[in-house]
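Last lecture ended with a question: if I hand you only a sequence, what can you say about the shape of the protein? Today we answer it with a concrete record. The protein is DNA repair protein RadA. Below, first the input exactly as provided, then the predicted structure, then a couple of comments.
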Amino acid sequence: MAAVRGSSRTAKGRERAAYRCAECGWTTAKWVGRCGECSAWGTLEEPGPVVGQTRAGAVTAPARPIGEVDLQQASARPTGVGELDRVLGGGLVPGAVVLLAGEPGVGKSTLLLEVAARCARPGAPTLYVTGEESAGQVRLRAERVGAVSPELYLAAEQDLGALLSHVDAVSPGLLVVDSVQTFASADVDGVAGGVTQVREVAATVTRTAKERGIATVLVGHVTKDGGIAGPRQLEHLVDVVLQVEGDRASRLRLVRAVKNRYGPTDEVGCFELADAGIFEVADPSGLFVTRHLTPVAGTCTAVTLEGRRPLLAEVQALVAPSASPQPRRATNGLDSARTAMVLAVLERRAGVRLRDRDVFLATVGGVRLAEPASDLAVALAVLSAQHELPLPPGLVAAGELGLAGEVRACLGVERRLAEAKRLGFRQAVVPPGSYEVPPGMTVVRAADIASAVEAAVRLQRTTPQPRPPERG
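The predicted structure:
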């Protein structure tokens, strides 16, 4: 008698789970449209038949002592784009698979086209396979950004088998697949971009890259929540996961490593997206600081760490009387929940009356400050705006605020101070601690928010204020 679908049994007659979620592995005896664990739709699959125990088979290469393994096979090759090499840990490793994800229009294809053109060289050509655009569209963009190279091969395909045929014909040193959600295999059920197809395409491309030693970059889409589209297994299959971040209103783009088997995961690459292409920004601090001719109330410069790189960003605050029973709290570039906490600490621990005030906070240049060490700069900017008291133009602040009003220690204080000194800042308010202060810089160690406020006011009174420009 034929077995009923969805009710398979073991040899002892016990019912076992017949369906498994491709996203999280949740199992159930009956098929449902939505996973009961991760709430994903259409991810339950029926597993194949259970077979006997796996026997020993042929090996690809005999096991060797670890000291005899060739290190050259895992050495990184520079891409020619310094900011990307910084994030990757030196460059692309032969056989490594990189997943580059980001929102539409953030500059993923433009960046990879630039990388492909720089990596294309005689003896190691580059293959760029696009499934989203025609070959003519990619050629037009390559002409615009100056990424045309004789060893850069271009193909427009959406079939996985055709992609493998192009790899056989070109034998590239670098393979770019744009994007993994647009390709499909004729041997697997499902539409392109579905869970089954994305898993099959990623697994096949990864296996080909490992077998032939081809550095491969896969472009991935993101969901409306910011996560990478497709099964979670996609991130486990690849060696490196990079995230491209950026605001449409800003030209700045940040490339951040989420996973990296060959390098650090705390590095950030900075780029500027323009009409002529995407360009490296080796010193991005100047983009986020406004040079005022005269001191302006409500501004304070924060020193944050993006990965290992210190970054200076100006925080601007505006405090105004509220005409509503519910005062407004608006932020741009700052976390709204953390900003609300800083405002509560200011009112409770520093005596700053904000309960009947509208508070607006923003960063300069579209940079997003998510590090807790920017709390102190936010607090000082709000204080300055509330009392119409301009802070010294050469003052920076770094420190995390606790609910008790204490200023907590933050990482890399010496690196932050050195970067501030390099950019011309001469005064700083930081958490207490023993660290080296750059010569010619005045540093105040504040243990709590009240001490930080007092120090800022004292520095403002003792700092010579620049004279406003004369009007002719």
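Comments.
1. Residues 75-282 form a domain with the Rossmann fold fold (CATH 3.40.50.300).
2. The longest helix spans residues 195-212.
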